[in-house]
Design goal:
The structure is a single chain. This protein is an alpha/beta fold. It folds into two domains: 139 residues, Response regulator (Rossmann fold, 3-Layer(aba) Sandwich), CATH 3.40.50; 63 residues, Arc Repressor Mutant, subunit A, CATH 1.10.10.10. Helices cover 54% and strands 11% of the residues. It has a six-stranded parallel β-sheet with strand order 2-1-3-4-5-6, sandwiched between helices. The longest helix is centred in the C-terminal third of the chain and has 14 residues. GO terms for molecular function: DNA binding.
Length: 213
């Protein structure tokens, strides 16, 4: 089944796949419809866009990760113009990495090769665009790349020695929001609570290592 918010691209893909012997059981335009259609039709393969309504962020990718948790045997190929790093690793790692693909639309130049990739994924293979691999490896080498822009701002404030109250005043947010951002920073930097280390200090050290020439 297909999930793509662009009508022309969705219909074009459906026609292309039909021509190459695939049976398209559903073609939908948003992530909620994708979830419902998978539950209804139990397809062998989902080909989904990443950015879909309503937010046009990573709805399609998040839906794909969720569907792979619920249906480990479901093959999924994500199509995107971008590398959405937030959930890309989760998708590729899901179901032990079997039956999954992540392709960049602009780098698909051969129709038969694309169709061959879909068949490979349906048969349990893993196909990831080399550019996606490079970006994910770069992210894993740089733990700060996992932080949101706001989390970067909060961490910079911590590095300057500000308290939570001062950070809240400086960034014009609530102290509760600051606490949530700091908790998220600790999680993303793999800093669990321990008696031996101060997590704020460890986070600052990570920031300074990243920011040093």
């Amino acid at each position: 089944m297909l999930a793509e918010d662009g009508v022309l691209l969705r219909e074009g893909l459906a026609g292309l796949l039909d021509r190459f012997g695939f049976r398209v059981v559903a073609a939908v335009g948003d992530a909620d419809a994708l979830r419902a259609a998978v539950d209804e039709h139990s397809p062998d393969l989902v080909v989904t866009d990443i950015r879909m309504p309503p937010g046009f962020a990573d709805e399609g990718l998040r839906a794909a990760v969720e569907l792979r948790r619920r249906h480990p045997d479901l093959a999924v190929v994500a199509l995107s113009q971008y590398v959405e790093q937030s959930y890309a690793s989760e998708l590729i790692d899901s179901a032990d990495g079997h039956g999954v693909g992540y392709l960049l639309k602009d780098r698909i130049v051969d129709v038969e090769e694309f169709v061959g990739t879909l068949r490979q994924v349906v048969n349990g293979g893993t196909v990831v665009d080399p550019q996606v691999v490079r970006q994910l490896l770069r992210r894993r080498r740089d733990p700060l790349a996992r932080l949101s822009p706001r989390e970067h701002e909060v961490l910079a404030q911590i590095a300057e020695g500000h308290s939570n109250a001062a950070i809240a005043r400086n960034l014009v947010i609530t102290e509760a929001a600051v606490g949530k951002h700091i908790s998220s920073i600790f999680t993303k930097l793999d800093l669990p609570p321990t008696e031996e280390t101060n997590r704020r200090v460890s986070a600052v050290l990570a920031y300074l290592r990243h920011d040093s020439p």
